[in-house]
Amino acid sequence: MTAVTGRKAAIVGVSLSDCGRVDEATPYALHAQAARRALADAGLDRSVIDGFASAGLGTLAPAEVAEYLGLRPAWVDSTSVGGSTWEVMAAHAADAIAAGHARAVLLVYGSTARADIRAGRRTGNLSFGARGPLQFEVPYGHTLIAKYAMAARRHMHEYGTTIEQLAEVAVQARANAAANPEAMFRDPITVDEVLSGPMVADPFTKLHCCIRSDGGAAVLLVAEDVARDCRTAPVWVLGSGEHVSHTAMSQWPDFTVSPAAVSGRLAFARAGVRPEEVDLAEIYDAFTYMTLVTLEDLGFCGKGEGGAFVEKGRLLAAGGQLPVNTDGGGLSAQHPGMRGLFLLVEAVRQLRGEAGERQVRKDGGRLPELAVASGTGGWFCSSGTVVLGRG
To answer: Which of 33, 144, 219, 391 shows the smallest number of beta carbons within 10 Å?
Structure first.
């Protein structure tokens, strides 16, 4: 068969599995549940899927998960770069569709990170191991959260960013979660409550850090000819970018600049849009500082201006200047490990007008037209950014 090149890629199916506290399911079951729901969302049968992408589960990911789902894909991707995995995979899937290598690519993820700890099947991980470059940091107790805390402290030193401004990120994420029935934590919090919580890694108290949940998500991307047969309106992949910055902290040139500075620039340029045209942003938020610095690096405000930008309710789904993490994000909604796929699900729901009480509206009540999803992996080691458009 002759390949058809230059085809546009659209997201036509999105879904979450059961999320939050899921004690009686396996990660495989959550993968399957999310996948079935995404196909139902698109109105398509699994027989249409000829591409598959997954990471984080199985000895031979994604082959093991594809077998569990009854799929025999002719195109696969197992890229694993932490939380940014799913934005990078979405970019690869769109490229495969454009090149004619696949017509329908399913991205799926599922994890029982919370349930496993409660049942004693695993313990909390403080680091990613002690091999390779990491062997030079681990002896000094340089845990995962410590890396983010150091970066946040540097930004505070360099630009005068305050702990109250970082706390505002958590407060507004929780306000967005309050309107999301799928969010794990919905009760309002205040800046004072964030600041007075137990210290985890200076300057981060507990509420500066993401929650630990169970859950899964799935996203179905298809070629434009397939999109015509779907029950949902297509959300188009307009542009994407990816970037790997460092592994060892000693090799990170500037703690105040994330890899989104490159992936975002590439994504916006390829999409042919400017940051100021974007209606909402879904940003990886394992810690409050991630949101703040990613907003800077995507170009929504200048370098060092993130602290002032996140004040005064600018991130709220209801009336915010730039609604961010409209579902409540990893700080309040769900965070079962690598959360990047959840960003894409929420962005698509918002563009399709399916977000319920947390639905973002433009002037005159119009639906948003442009969204960006930006995932971060490791300790700002990698970034994937995708620009999505409606209609």
So the answer is: 391
Task: Quote the CA–CA distance of 131 and 133 in Å, as a whole number.
Answer: 6
Exposure of 162 by Cβ count < 10 A (0-12 exposed, 13-18 middle, 19+ buried)? middle
pLDDT tens per residue across span 276-329? 999 999 999 999 999 999 999 999 999 999 999 999 999 999 999 999 999 999
Single-letter amino acid, residue 156: M
* Distant-in-sequence, close-in-space partners of 157: CB < 8 Å, separation ≥ 6: none
Rounded to the nearest integer, the mean pLDDT of the chain is 95
> How many angstroms separate the CA atoms of 131 and 143, rounded?
14
Around Cβ 93, how many Cβ atoms within 10 Å?
A: 29
CA proximity to 250, closest of 321, 181, 346, 150: 150
| Number of helices followed by number of strands (H, E) in the chain | 13, 11
DSSP state of 147: H
- What is the pTM assigned to this prediction? 0.96
Say if strands 235-244 and 9-16 run parallel, antiparallel, or are unpaired. antiparallel
Q: Confidence class of residue 142 from pLDDT cuts 50, 70 and 90?
A: confident
236-279 pLDDT tens trace: 999 999 999 999 898 999 999 999 999 999 999 999 999 999 99
What pLDDT is attached to residue 124? 63
Q: Tokens 């990893």 appear where?
A: 330
- 204, β-bridge pairs: 201
